[in-house]
Amino acid sequence: MESTASGCFPRYSWLDFLFAVVGVCTFLFDIGSDVWLAKEFYQHGEFFWFAALLGFMLVSSAVVQMFSWFWIQYDSQLDNYDFQTAGRRVVLFGSPKRVKLTCFLHICQLGFLLRHISAIWLGFCVWWRGEKGSEYAVYLTHDLSMLRLIETFCESAPQLSLMIYIMLHNNEARTIQYVSMIASTTSIAWMVVDYHRSLRSFLPDKSKQGWLSSAFYFLWNLLLIAPRVVTVALFTSVLPRYIAAHFLCLWLAFVLWAWLQDTNFMDTPAGEWLYRATIGLIWYFSWFNVAEGKTRGRSIIYHFFALTDIGVLLFSWWWLRDPETTQSYSLFILFLVPLSYVLGLLVKTLYYCSCHPTLWQPVGSRKVPGDTPDGAVALVQADSSAPEVVNKRMAKHVSNFYSTRTLPKTETNG
User: Fold this and answer.
1) Residues 50/38, Cβ–Cβ less than 8 Å
2) What's the CA gap between 298 and 188, in Å, rounded?
3) Which residue of 127, 197, 242, 276 has the fewest CB atoms within a 10 Å radius of its CB?
4) What is the number of domains present in the chain?
5) Residue 100, domain member (yes or no)
6) Single pTM value for the model
7) DSSP reduced 3-state for 58
8) pLDDT tens for residues 353-372?
9) Which pLDDT tens digit goes with each residue over 309-342?
10) H/E segment holding residue 289
11) Residue 404's beta-bridge partner residues?
């Protein structure tokens, strides 16, 4: 996203339009592949796997649709903002005249797809035709980034664990299954990077995340998420009846932790509890900052707990595994899984010490002190020249990831 002339707000670019097109194609491909896999399970009489896969799909879709609908309700006050795109007033598709149709589409699980199509159409009008509405196009892009992240951890991550478990349960796997597993893990890590880049593009006074920084950010997320997904599958392969209890105990603890951090991302109590429940699911697989302030301590606590839990799950699998059927890969997994997580932590530390975007920004051009891991100093400040439409949800997460600290007025003015 490029900055406006005033440098106060990102402007919609051809790259944003490309990502919107790729996003809807990926969304449709993901649905198609899930339906195809579910059909394969059903045709082969594997009704348990069919039901599990279908359950992940339905729960993930329902959660994403609820977030999308809540946000439409919250954004209803923006309906009077005139973008004058294509000679007509462009408003949120949650406007009073369209609210029934929009509600019906969300009930039919089509609200997320509607957002993708709206982003593509408005992006085409803004970028290709050169019409007004850049602020709203960026607004939609930010929301889609968050919704894709939610979908990733509600569906892709647990579904990947299920796929690995099926491979272990059947004690056989084809090359395409290995390729699919690697591709899914890579996709999850990339979605985290995409969301982080979307966060940084929202900040008017932060240096952009370059390719080197993005590569390191992607790598450490890949190294941290992959062993978590694998150990869940390994534990399930030896104690399938206990994985639900393990998940529920950790999920409830994570939801309680989110509540204790007094999150206020949504605008209603019901929406906030939905957000906390989703954060609990995300934390089951990966760290995600949800509160302002320096969060290095919270991050250390989380990673120490996650590493301990991975060790417990891995030891349980090693102790209860079948030595004959796991002989070919047991030692490899026992060594690689903890090594991957430790390497991920090292790469994360290296990222913040050497490759963080602020470190590449000329000292004289910085408007605020350099930021630190997940508790960075930043200013999300109002500007009289900023556009009227600001994505408050993204601004809230920006203040969480780059926590605001009060500075003297002379410093905040640059």
Assistant:
1) yes
2) 23
3) 242
4) 1
5) yes
6) 0.80
7) helix
8) 765 555 444 434 444 333 43
9) 999 999 999 999 988 888 888 899 999 999 999 9
10) none
11) 378
